[in-house]
Write a structure and sequence with these properties.
Strand order of the largest sheet: 3-4-5
Shape: globular
Order of helices and strands: HHHHEEHEHHEEHHH
Helix content: 55-70%
Radius of gyration: 20 Å
Strand content: 5-15%
Low-confidence stretches: 1-6, 273-288
Structural class: mainly alpha
Mean pLDDT: 87
Length: 288
């Protein structure tokens, strides 16, 4: 099939490419609404005196934010359930990591348990919210996805965050296994009138990179501190970028389980990078 850009000159293709980049950036920005509001809350709570403890206020704020997203239908009840599931997954990891001294949360709070404020799980839930929002706005679908193998590896990745404190660290072998399982998995997404694709493993790495940037922002705002950041803020070790890229697989598995139930997981339709016709768009709507 000949695309619209094939029938135009280089100048028009350049302009079209710039517009697509702007569209992509806008969709990414609105998909990050929950993380953006979360970081706004972190910033305000750091520099504004509050009538209650900071972490208590942040927990109430995140609960209200989640309820608001559901009420205005930015997220479905299934997506909210997945987000809270990832909240619990993250909270379990936080409790362990704080116990072994990997990082700490400064300040006291009523809703702080074993050194971990309950709001902390929402930082993981924000990742799930982003994936849910991006799935809808980009019309994400995947092909070549192997759910059982990916789920097993995602669980092993999560367990390794605990066991590597006593047993050999297996993150590299597990990461290689994940790359093998995902070698034929592609994620399809729509920007404007065009359909694109990228390797699913690449999307994990990209999300992990931006999560590493977000982690730097979070520690700068004193949401939590690594041992070398207690006296003076330092950039988070780049090794955390890899850890986040691996942990994204757990978030994806949880969201994919919901999208599978909704019939919005696997790719059906035209190939990538071709113009989407109105007939195809209506067919996609009917397929959902």
């Amino acid at each position: 099939m000949t695309t619209w850009t094939d029938r135009t000159g280089l100048s028009s293709r350049f302009v079209f490419g710039c517009l697509q980049l702007l569209r992509f950036g806008w969709l990414e920005m609105v998909s990050c609404l929950f993380p953006a509001f979360l970081f706004a809350g972190l910033a305000v709570s750091k520099y504004v005196d509050l009538p209650i403890a900071r972490y208590d206020a942040l927990l109430l704020y995140c609960l209200v934010l989640t309820l608001l997203f559901w009420l205005v239908r930015l997220e479905t009840w299934r997506e909210v359930a997945v987000i809270f599931g990832f909240h619990l997954v993250g909270l379990g990891l936080e409790l362990f990591k704080v116990h072994v001294g990997s990082w700490q949360y400064p300040g006291d709070a009523v809703t702080k348990f074993a050194g971990v404020p309950l709001f902390a799980g929402f930082m993981y839930a924000a990742v799930g919210s982003y994936i849910c929002q991006a799935w809808r706005r980009f019309e994400l679908r995947v092909s070549g996805y192997r759910p059982i193998q990916t789920t097993v590896l995602a669980v092993l990745i999560y367990l390794n965050f605990f066991t590597h404190h006593w047993l050999p660290d297996l993150r590299i072998p597990i990461a290689i296994g994940l790359l093998v399982v995902l070698r034929r998995a592609w994620v399809f997404y729509t920007v404007g009138v065009r359909r694109y694709r990228m390797p699913l493993a690449v999307s994990f790495a990209l999300i992990g990179f931006f999560l590493w940037i977000a982690e730097n922002a979070g520690t700068f705002l004193d949401a939590w501190n690594y041992p070398d950041q207690v006296s003076v803020w330092r950039i988070v070790h780049p090794q955390k970028f890899g850890a986040w890229s691996l942990l994204v697989s757990m978030s994806f598995v949880l969201v994919a389980s919901v999208k599978s139930l909704e019939g919005r997981l696997y790719h059906r339709g035209t190939s990538a990078t071709v113009e989407i016709s109105p007939q195809h768009d209506h067919a996609n709507q009917a397929d959902r």
